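ESCALATION

Customer reports they have been waiting on this structure for their group meeting. Please prioritize. Original submission:
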Amino acid sequence: MNKKKKSIFLGPVIMIIILIAIIMIASAIFSIFQVGGQITSISNGTLETSLVTVNNLLSSAGIKFILSNAITNFQKLSPVILLIIVLLGIGICEKSGLFKIVFSKLKKVPTPTLIFFTIFLSVISSIIGENSFIILIPVVGIAYKYANRNAMMGILISFISICLGYGFGLIFNYDDYLLGTLTAASASLDVDKNYKYQLLSNIYMLIAFTFIFSVLGSIIINAFLVPKFEVIKKYEKEETIESKKGLLFSTIAFVVMLLIVVYMIIPGLPGSGLLLDKNSNIYIAQLFSNNSPFSNSLIFIFSIIMMVCGLIYGRISGNIKNTNEFSIGLGYSFDNLGYVFVLLFFFSQMIALLDWSNIGTVLGTIIIDKISLLQLSGVLLIIIFFLAIVFIGIFIPSTLTKWTIASPIIIPLFMRANITPDFTQFIFRVADGIGKCITPMYIYFFIMMAFMQKYNYDNEHNITIFGTLKLMSSTVLILSLLLLLLLVLWYIIGLPMGLQMYPTL
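Update from on-call: job pushed to the front of the queue and completed.
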């Protein structure tokens, strides 16, 4: 009798430790061979170049950094705090039975339709930046659970859609504004002194890409991802008391609170604008700048609204009878999630060491510099740049960091190839999203994995770094090629990007 060979799966924690070891060894090798790159930056209205080299993590300075900053690295991981705040509100809604009553109605929705709206909602959520991961990943998992669909499938669909759609979410977001300032500076300092970046310059592409991606994405996901989650689980662990009266009053409370928040972000009305950054002239910056009260309180506002709605429903339905049950409900969503904080602790060390070593920055500068020397143009230049940004994104998930490195070189290069800075930035945005989707250096990748593991009751899937990447590989590859094809076709046809803006100069 032949014995089946047991597959060896490396858990996420062990894989992170292995990646940390690889980063440390690589930093030592690169440092010994003095691997470095020229980084071009904009300072005081002029272009400046400086040498950036790899720091050796195995040196005395590196060892000191590792040992003395372990706690600080974890403390600086702000998504951890945001996740805790979100789960407080979600816990009350789930414990009270509100989410079950609301999302159970999705049972009647056909799976392809549900997937389409999951993709669409995930894409347009980019307007709130990376907060979309914190809110949507746990909520979508719960929604699919009570809709009697595989919760892991819903979480993975939402994650892929947020990442790939991050650069074209129906309307511009704050990242577009920040990147646009770098784009304008890079263009005006070299090729076109009069160039000005306009936020609405790519509005046609934003709308078109959102709907095309949502439609074709749902078809591709149904064909390649859904079959991997064939087993539909009935996840309900307990019956809750349905209350139409509770649902009515919680809905009224939700609408009232939402209108109050909306009123506080509308400028110019009596007593309005409380949550806006009054020091910014651009509305999108007033909403989402680092100093914006709305941006800094968005997660807390969401959690408060969920708490109030869940409490109202729970009290009226009788599912939350006293303050003790309310307190228990606050921690309800934390069940089976202790694992996420273990993952994030080790992740915080890995990303801190990668940043300190400068490996990502050096690789990024070298690749961008090589592209500038290839003397490419047209479609080939677009494709090579697109692939380069995807690759760099594996080591540098930060959108702003990548564009800071790339824009001073790439913008003039594309302008000399007769491609507008606005179209160049859009290419970057799309490629940047793909890089976020496939890199284990991105914190939200691990948050996604942790929530998938929460619903992996029978260990039906290998939720490890490589297991998760394998699970979504074919889907992400096809969707990425689709996005690249759309970019190339838009360029070849010469369709308008937005108001009086085209791909070519």
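Sent to customer with the following note: Residues 68 and 419 are 48 Å apart (CA to CA).
Escalation resolved.
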